[in-house]
Each structure stands twice: as structure tokens, then as C-alpha cells.
Design a protein that fits this description.
Chain A has 219 residues and is mainly alpha-helical. Chain A is 78% helix and 0% strand. Chain B contains eight helices and 13 strands. The chains are: A mainly alpha (219), B alpha+beta (313).
């Protein structure tokens, strides 16, 4: 893809990623007849959380998509989606901490300790922080190989996030099951890639052929 | 917020006239909102005016709006979303309506709704409503003290519990086509709870007959218990010797029990019950403390003397 076109695409996607926030703002302020419904705080918490998860799954879908389509430019969108994940999860947490718990530290700590689904969610959020901080080019350069290792945390975050969703549902688990299924698919893809590489390198070792110079990673 | 005693001044109860004035305003604003949001108008054709008298036990807290009460509902027979009942229950047929009364009583039978309701005066009762999901409302119900109704069926000495069932009709109730709960919905009370003067068989709210999404034509209101005890669209009343297994208890016994008394000290396994969010208070309102027995401790605490409320949740 031409640099010009890529820039346009990225700018367009950036605006698209802000749409959920825009809609929530219109609803929160009752603009254009929109509303958050009778329980606005819960609606805000839920919708920001869902969008955080959506962006997390989109981020995790980039590598498989690139491998399947061969379009390398997809990788250059990954950071943006990852940071939007962080953005919506931060909003999710801020609405919970601020509007729901009024920044009462005692209530929040109590929740984190006593409610397993909140423990999971909070862990996922804390793990996202180092990833967001080290998302800059400078940090990537500075950390070198360790950057990749560190950012594999996103798999753990994915599992924690979807589990957090599953655990807070009252009765109908259809929606979290869909998220679980997609996550299993996305993580399963990576396992298959790793497994096939391992087999290949075993075979090449057996036949005495030299191994590939650059060992691809699961991404 | 005050804890009210049963003797309240009549002036503290919102008069029917005030309901109606408020109602007109709401209908107007609701219409404007509906026009924007593409929702059907909030004025429901099936809802009729009722003749009511003031009843005891009303709270002086401001009732929630007609709109909040009729668009934010848990009524899984019509869908799992809070607005689903409002959307899906509009064509629900509540007439004719028959209630089967059976079990340990001397006057069992199939009773028409009119025959059940007619002998009683309809009372206005403004009650706090606390959902197990930690939100609450104030609802101006219209109804009959359940005990007065039940006495007419002459329960015998074997009757220790009353079991209620909701209509089973997947054609009209789309939620019953999926197996979220074991349909039909079942709830139960001890005889002492059922005969308590606070317990209401509701037929209306805001001086009008119940909108379908609120459990028309006949629903239970037990204000010191979590909302799910308030079984809706009742077609079956049975006096039993053994404790009935209510639907939520059958579905998730570790989280929901038979008693379901509002209790800020006994948390739901997954969330706190210490505080509640008052619906309609707005985006920036603080949660409020949940009261023991939802603020009705003075009236009902004695029903549970000697009962371990932590174990009997």
C-alpha cells in the first residue's frame, strides 16, 4: 500500500475508533434525543468495557490477518488498536471508580479484593499499563528483544478480560461465550503457528538442513 | 431518608390527582422522547384508570417517573434486556385472565380476574423496590393486601407456604422460547409472609392498571424482599405444606435462595448489597445505603426471629 493511502486509511480508522465514545457522549448529555436509559452509570461502565474488549480482540486479530492475507501494512495499525483498547478500558475503570464508587478508595479496594470478577478486571487493567507505556518507537528500540516478550502479556490480558466479562453476567452467558470463542480462535491460531514452526525446525534438524536464519515469532 | 412507621399523614401521600398531572406531563415528554428515539409511544392503549383509596405503609420518598418504572424492567419472559419487556410486551393479552387456586385450601377453583379483584378496595401504596442487582426505585403501586385475597380461599392448617406461577405461553412470551430459567417462573412465600399486611397483590401503578411489562394483570409486591420475589402475570396460586423451589433458586442455588430478604450485610456472591443505585437519580448521584429489609425492618423483622439470615439468603 502506498504511504499516502495508508495515512488516509489510518486517519479514517482513528476517527472510526472514536465513534463509540462520540455516541456515549451524545447519550450522556441527552443530545439528539439519545439517552443512556434509566441506569446511565451502569450503561457507561458496560459499554466502555465492551468496547475495550472489542478493541482488544481487534488488536489480537492483526497478526493472524497479516499471516493469512500477507498484507504487512496491517501490522502498522496494531499499536493504534492496542492504545484504543487501553483508552476504553481506562474510561471503563474511571466511570466505575468515579461515578459508581465516587473515588472512595475503601470501596474500590474492597471490591478488588472481594469480587473475583473485579480482581480479574483490575489485574488486566494493571497489566495494560506497561504495554501502553512501552508502545512508543523509542521504547521499542530501547527494549529490543525484551519488548516482544513483554508485549506477549496481551494474551494474558485477553484471557483475564474475557473471563472478567463472563463472571459478571447474571444469567445469559451467550455474549461472553462469543467473546471467548473469538479469543480461543485468535490464540489458537498462534499456538498452531508455534507448533508448526517447532515441527519444521525438528524436521530440518533431523535432515541436517540449516535452520531458517530468522525464526518467525508468533506475534 | 426516614424510616416510616405505618401511621403516616394522608398529606404525605401523593394524591391521585397529582399522579395524573404528573402523568400527563410525562406522557407529553415521553412522546417527544419516543418520537426522537424511534420507540413506540409510552402511552399504552391497554392501561385503564383505576379507582383507588390511600393505603398504609407508603414512603414519602419521591416516586420514580412513569417512564423509568415502565421501561426499565426485569421480566425475562419478554427478553433479558431492561427495555425488552417494554418493547415486547405491548401485545400481550391479559383479558380474559383466569387464576387457578388449589392445594391446601377449602375453596379451590378457577377464578376470573374480575372476581378476584372486585370484592376489594384498591389501595395506593408507595413502596421502595430493591432489585437484587443493587438498583432501586420508588413505585406507587395499586393493589390489594395479599392476605385479604388469600383468606377468601380458606387455606387449611396444612398450608405452610404459598406458591405462585407465571403464565407459560412461549407464543406470547418470546423469552420463554430460550431456556434461561426453568419456565414457568415460580415464586413462593411462607404463609406468615403472604398474610403480612405489607404484602401486596398489585394490579396497577400510578393509579392506572398495570402496564404489561410490569406484570399485568396481577403481580406480587413484597417490598422487603429483592424484586425477583415479585412474580408477575400470575395464573396459579397453590397452598403447600412444603417450601416451594423458586425459579432463581433452582437456576443458581449458590446465589439465590428462597427468602431473598433485602439485607445490606449479606452480599450476593459476586457483588455487594451494601449500597444501591436509585434509578432516575442521574449520572452524578451517589449510591445510597441499602437498609435492612429495605427499610421495612420495623414491620417484618419479627417474622425472621431465630432464622440465620446469612444461611437463609
Amino acid at each position: 500500500m502506498k504511504q499516502q493511502n495508508f495515512k488516509l486509511l489510518k486517519a479514517g480508522l482513528f476517527l472510526l475508533c472514536l465513534l463509540p465514545l462520540g455516541k456515549l457522549m451524545l447519550e450522556a448529555f441527552g443530545i439528539a434525543g439519545l439517552s443512556l436509559g434509566a441506569n446511565p452509570v451502569e450503561e457507561l461502565i458496560h459499554r466502555n468495557g465492551i468496547w475495550g474488549l472489542n478493541f482488544l480482540l481487534i488488536t489480537l486479530a492483526i497478526t493472524p490477518l497479516r499471516k493469512l492475507t500477507g498484507r504487512v501494512w496491517l501490522l502498522r495499525l496494531r499499536r493504534m488498536f492496542g492504545l484504543f483498547t487501553f483508552f476504553y478500558i481506562c474510561l471503563h475503570f474511571l466511570v466505575y471508580a468515579g461515578l459508581d464508587q465516587r473515588f472512595n478508595l475503601r470501596f474500590i479496594v474492597e471490591d478488588v479484593i472481594e469480587r473475583p470478577y473485579i480482581t480479574l478486571g483490575m489485574t488486566a487493567l494493571l497489566l495494560l499499563i506497561p504495554l501502553a507505556i512501552t508502545s512508543t518507537n523509542g521504547m521499542m528500540r530501547r527494549l529490543g528483544k525484551r519488548w516482544q516478550k513483554l508485549h506477549r502479556l496481551v494474551y494474558v490480558i485477553g484471557i483475564l478480560g474475557v473471563w472478567h466479562f463472563f463472571w459478571q453476567v447474571k444469567l445469559d452467558i451467550t455474549e461472553p461465550l462469543i467473546y471467548i470463542a473469538i479469543l480461543v480462535l485468535l490464540l489458537g491460531f498462534r499456538l498452531v503457528v508455534v507448533w508448526r514452526q517447532a515441527r519444521k525446525s525438528r524436521q530440518s534438524a533431523a535432515t541436517g538442513k540449516p535452520e531458517h536464519a530468522h525464526t518467525a515469532n508468533a506475534g | 431518608m426516614k424510616n416510616r412507621d405505618p401511621q403516616i399523614k394522608p398529606s404525605e401521600i401523593t394524591s391521585e390527582g397529582n399522579y395524573l398531572k404528573r402523568r400527563e406531563l410525562l406522557a407529553a415528554s415521553g412522546f417527544a422522547l419516543a418520537a426522537f428515539a424511534g420507540l413506540p409511544s409510552l402511552s399504552t392503549a391497554a392501561v385503564k384508570e383505576l379507582k383507588t383509596v390511600s393505603g398504609p405503609f407508603s414512603t414519602d420518598e419521591a416516586p420514580n417517573s412513569w417512564e423509568d418504572i415502565t421501561t426499565y424492567n426485569n421480566f425475562y419472559e419478554f427478553g433479558l434486556g431492561k427495555e425488552d419487556p417494554y418493547r415486547n410486551a405491548q401485545d400481550f393479552r391479559t383479558s380474559p385472565w383466569t387464576v387457578k387456586v388449589h392445594g391446601e385450601c377449602d375453596k379451590p377453583g378457577d377464578y376470573n380476574l374480575e372476581d378476584l379483584v372486585k370484592p376489594h378496595a384498591l389501595e395506593d401504596r408507595i413502596y421502595r423496590h430493591r432489585c437484587v442487582e443493587a438498583w432501586s426505585m420508588v413505585v406507587p403501586w395499586v393493589g390489594i393486601p395479599l392476605g385479604d385475597m388469600l383468606k377468601r380461599f380458606a387455606p387449611n392448617s396444612q398450608a405452610k407456604f404459598v406458591k405462585f406461577k407465571t403464565l407459560l405461553d412461549p407464543k406470547q412470551m418470546p423469552g420463554q422460547r430460550s431456556r434461561n430459567l426453568d419456565w414457568p417462573y415460580v415464586e413462593g412465600l411462607t404463609m406468615a409472609e403472604a398474610m403480612h399486611p405489607l404484602t401486596l397483590m398489585a394490579v396497577g401503578l400510578y393509579g392506572k392498571s398495570l402496564p404489561n411489562q410490569n406484570g399485568a394483570p396481577l403481580r406480587l409486591v413484597v417490598p422487603w424482599k429483592y424484586g425477583f420475589k415479585g412474580i408477575k402475570s400470575i395464573v396459579d396460586i397453590e397452598f403447600t405444606e412444603r417450601q416451594p423451589r423458586n425459579s432463581w433458586q433452582v437456576s443458581i442455588p449458590s446465589e439465590y435462595g428462597f427468602y431473598a430478604n433485602v439485607n445490606p450485610e449479606v452480599d450476593h456472591p459476586r457483588w455487594s448489597q451494601a449500597r444501591e443505585r436509585r434509578i432516575g437519580a442521574g449520572l452524578f448521584a451517589a449510591k445510597q445505603e441499602t437498609l435492612m429489609f429495605n427499610g421495612y425492618a420495623e414491620q417484618v423483622a419479627s417474622l425472621y426471629d431465630g432464622l440465620n439470615l446469612r444461611r437463609n439468603y
